[in-house]
Specification:
Distance between the termini: 69 Å
Helix content: 25-40%
Shape: extended
Number of helices: 4
Low-confidence stretches: none
Order of helices and strands: HHEEEEHH
Number of strands: 4
Largest sheet: 4 strands, antiparallel
């Protein structure tokens, strides 16, 4: 187990993912992780900070780890690269946590929440159609 206490959480980098990209990660099964090479690359640009971020997920050359590489390019032209290797087991845990969180990330949990429905009904104000 690696020492996580050396990570600088105050200088963490954020990356936004589309549902399709999350699906690409979730569809990798354990057998594929152990036997096949794979590479997933996702890129997006931000308007406010004028950055282009590219996240690459692939197996390491030793094939014992999955390597997350985040490349951040700014308009000034000085790219920064951040690499995070994780074990296959850690990647599977990441997949399971993502499966659990996905309905909350895209709002599907609201469809089945009785509390949210009750709150909506209480706050509903009938407004008949007027010409």
């Amino acid at each position: 187990i690696r020492d996580r206490s050396t990570w600088d959480w105050n200088n963490r980098k954020n990356y936004a993912m589309a549902v399709k990209s999350i699906g690409d990660i979730l569809t990798m099964d354990l057998k594929a992780l152990k036997t096949q090479d794979f590479k997933i690359e996702m890129t997006y640009s931000t308007i406010t900070t004028k950055e282009t971020k590219t996240l690459t997920i692939q197996k390491t050359k030793e094939e014992k780890e999955v390597l997350f590489t985040l490349k951040v390019e700014t308009v000034q032209g000085n790219p920064s690269t951040y690499k995070i290797p994780i074990s296959i087991g850690e990647f599977v845990v990441l997949q399971e946590l993502t499966k659990y969180a996905l309905p909350y990330l895209i709002g599907w949990n609201a469809l089945l929440s009785a509390k949210l429905v009750e709150d909506e009904v209480q706050n509903y104000e009938y407004r008949p159609y007027q010409k």
